[in-house]
Amino acid sequence: MSRDNIIGYVDPLITSPGAKPAVKVSCSRRDTFTSQVYRLGAGFNHSDGPPVSHRPLEAIPQQTHQGRPQFSRIGSFAKIPSWGGILLERADSVSISFWCQPTLPQGAKHDQFLFSSTDNSQQTGFECFLDQAGVLRLRTGVPNGMQEVILSVNLLRYRWYHLLFSMRSSSGTLTLKSKAKARDIAEPEELFEERHSLEQPLRIASHVPLTIGSDSHGCRPSSKPIYSGSFNGKIEGFRIETRSSAGHIDTLLDMDFSLDIPTDKIRDVSGNEHHGELINGPSRAVTGHDWHASQTDWTHASYGYGAIYFHDDDLDDTQWETTFELDVPKDLHSGCYGILVDDGVSTDFIPFFIRPDPNASRTPPVALIIPTMTYAGKVVPAFIACAI
């Protein structure tokens, strides 16, 4: 399907008689489009099957709406809105360390950001990413803008690496220490260190949120396409420390991804309470760098499941703005429904489901289980009772 085709969804996907669910539509080709609600019947047109039997709902007449394009940022990442980035102005140096396991270092067709705090408006902050060729790069603010360093370490697919970045603001030096974990008992760990000098002070303090697993640019809903900058792979044990000119070390951030696994929250255990949230549903309870198969159930494990698996095609909520509200009649029967939206060039059937009126004196005798994961990602499966 072309990204210019009309498309939409109903929120919530499952609603009740008398409710007013929001309909969110992206329409790029025309200024207006029409909507018509149908009760869905047989929908597959085949000579061996029953005829298509969608029936227009007379209680909700066809309507015309103003159309506009809506896009969303795909790809999962972690976002820490308040992480103390402005405090880096007082630090002589900062170190960033974490474990990572790339699963698509090459071939993603976009830059894959491991972390980012870049403030484009002020040209400050720092970010690290794999370019489309799989080359690791570090970009940081300097007095005349942003400066980029090409790093020599080669991250291989499915191998665990511990990366430690050190940036000294006053001298403009960047250091990377990496440790590649052995993949079997016959393979040794590989240690690597490189140092770069930018020959000018670094401007690493930042007012913008810190992102892990993607870049810090672009909002989720937009009127223009937003291309993913998400990392494909696992990240674990993300930590930021600062050092003063007197040598005093402070832990600014220490993320423990093994905590709050059933939620979209991530917890900072440094004591600073710089907690964050996960965007677009990355995978949790996945094996980390210290997993060795002694426990295969994360709920019973004390270690081994502290990683988060990010993907550049994850999506759990587009956060589109509402185009119109659907007035569901109070006497509408439970069942499967669809809104046919038509901009004159393309069409889309937007499914939604009506559960029985919870206040009705009688309930239908049959329960139909709808596999809502088929219609919308990360929607809790629902039981919809329908009369037969």
Can you put this structure into words, describing what you see?
It is built from no helices and 29 strands. The chain has a 16-stranded antiparallel sheet that branches. Strands 2, 4, 5, 6, 26 and 27 form a 6-stranded mixed sheet that branches. A 3-stranded antiparallel sheet has the order 1-3-25, with no helix packed on it. A hairpin with a 5-residue loop joins strand 19 and strand 20. The protein is mostly beta strands. Helix content is 0%, strand content 40%.
Quick summary of this structure?
With 388 residues, the protein is mostly beta strands.
Radius of gyration: 25 Å
Summing up helix and strand content along with how strands pair, one would put the structural category as: mainly beta
Number of helices: 0
Shape by Cα distribution: elongated
Strand content range: 35-45%
* Poorly predicted runs: 377-388
The helix content, as a percent range, equals: under 10%
Main beta-sheet strand count, sense and barrel state: 16 strands, antiparallel
Average pLDDT works out at: 91
Number of strands: 29
Distance between the termini: 35 Å
Can you write the helix and strand succession as a string? EEEEEEEEEEEEEEEEEEEEEEEEEEEEE
